[in-house]
Amino acid sequence: MEKAGYWDLMETSVIIFVAYSLFSVVVPLNNLLGTVVSSIISVAVTVFAFGLIGYKISKDKKTNIKSGKVGAWTGVVVGLVYALIAILTFYLFPEKIAEAISAAAKQGLTTNVTKAMIEIGLYINLIILPLIYTALGAFISWISFLIFKKK
């Protein structure tokens, strides 16, 4: 497979991640039970989406593409998408952020400091999230490839 083949392997996983991240923006789970359920669903989506890459590569006997490499590239795309969605959420839905700012204000921080800290964190995520998801994507897709290759 050529470079176009990478996108064919990545496409479904990226769509799953984008759909889940948009769903979590639209339907936030704020209480404790919601946070736990949301975390479990997030881990399940991550494992499933990156595992799907390893599965697809293991079933294609003709390819010599490395599953970890495809998982890493998927992680870069997903990390950037997550960071951009977070930035857009901050600017397009300020009422969602207002709750976090007011909670921090109750703890003694000023509103401006809290807002500045959130903005800095959002832009740092443009670097950190792709790195994290690159490592996760490479590892999970490689493990998935090894599991499905043996079956």
Short précis:
The protein is mostly helical and 151 residues long. The protein has helices at residues 3-26, 32-59, 67-92, 94-106, 111-150. Helix 1 (3-26) packs parallel to helix 3, helix 2 runs antiparallel to helix 3 (67-92) and helix 3 (67-92) packs antiparallel against helix 5.
What does the model show?
With 151 residues, the chain is mainly α. The chain contains five helices and no strands.
Say what oligomer this is: single chain
Taking pLDDT < 50 over at least 5 consecutive residues as the criterion, the unreliable ranges are: none
What's the total count of β strands? 0
Mean pLDDT: 85
Element-by-element helix/strand order: HHHHH
Alpha plus pi helix count: 5
